[in-house]
Known about the structure:
Layout: H1 2-12, H2 17-22, H3 32-49, H4 71-84, E1 91-96, H5 100-112, H6 121-137, E2 140-141, E3 148-152, E4 159-163, E5 166-174, H7 191-203, E6 206-211, E7 219-233, H8 242-250, E8 255-263, H9 265-273, E9 278-286, H10 292-302, E10 306-310, E11 323-337, E12 340-347, H11 353-358, E13 364-365, H12 368-372, E14 376-386, H13 399-403
Parallel strand pairs: 1-2, 1-3, 7-14
Antiparallel strand pairs: 3-4, 5-7, 5-8, 6-7, 9-12, 9-14, 10-11, 10-13, 11-12
Helix pairs in contact: 1-3, 4-6
The protein binds zinc ion.
Amino acid sequence: xxxxxxxxxxxxxxxxxxxxxxxxxxxxxxxxxxxxxxxxxxxxxxxxxxxxxxxxxxxxxxxxxxxxxxxxxxxxxxxxxxxxxxxxxxxxxxxxxxxxxxxxxxxxxxxxxxxxxxxxxxxxxxxxxxxxxxxxxxxxxxxxxxxxxxxxxxxxxxxxxxxxxxxxxxxxxxxxxxxxxxxxxxxxxxxxxxxxxxxxxxxxxxxxxxxxxxxxxxxxxxxxxxxxxxxxxxxxxxxxxxxxxxxxxxxxxxxxxxxxxxxxxxxxxxxxxxxxxxxxxxxxxxxxxxxxxxxxxxxxxxxxxxxxxxxxxxxxxxxxxxxxxxxxxxxxxxxxxxxxxxxxxxxxxxxxxxxxxxxxxxxxxxxxxxxxxxxxxxxxxxxxxxxxxxxxxxxxxxxxxxxxxx
Length: 406
Ligand SMILES: [Zn+2]
């Protein structure tokens, strides 16, 4: 049946061995041009026995136009371009953009002769170029998560190299007040700019900072630090030394990073959406004065309290006006002087602490002001710790990712 079908195809279309073999590409093992050559040989033997002319392989194939005989040339183009741009990678994939005209002609042949075991032309082309590039580069094709993708236009012979981003996970401490997390008008620097700078430079790409939540400009981030991800777009260098980068950031004296490690997009999403419990330390000012018994009362009332918090007035422009329900778990307090005391608060992520203290004109309840029936104001605030989830961002990442940390 294969030979009969092949005869009918070749009576109408002048195909090269690759294209002929590909029409039966999902049957048997081996390369399509060998399949095609074998089919053509048997067919021509039968035709000779019947006194018919043989079907010779054409100079120019009616379907592929000969591109399948030039895969090595295309592999060379990819190799030259990657070498010229000095792109560093371990794994790659080949893709191609065949014109609709060719794809359509192929579909037409497949439907007409009911070829249920045919393989699409781009799949053969990509695979064959990939095999040659594996030898040129001495690196492996990877379908799932390649470092780079070569996209070949077989007609214009243009090569487009898509470099996939690098992702680095870490935690940061913000040691000073008055530094925004992300760039802000009127500020020369931000946590993001200090962290991203050495990444952009060493990876020769564009580093983008993603923080797991944020703290206000005047709030320090201490303790074990806030999780973040740096996404480096278009990195020409992938083997970057994370220890050296951490050292450079830490020299700033303003921001410190810990636990830097390579990660991937999927983990990034997890890190950024997880709502971690947090521990804060707040310095509170009470104009009317404060006594030991007041602090004890606040600690007692807030421990294990459920807080109803309407969107604070100060962020109302940027956030929708809703009521959040968050829990406070542990509280401890300490009198500093007759108008100041400190509170340590361990609570759900997403609770606005300044408003938990002031009461925000009754929008947060209960609050320190409400409990004392006095005006309490947060004078200084630090994030002391961000809880690390058991199975979340701190779990050991797979070997592939950390191998790169050379
Ligand atoms: Zn062909």
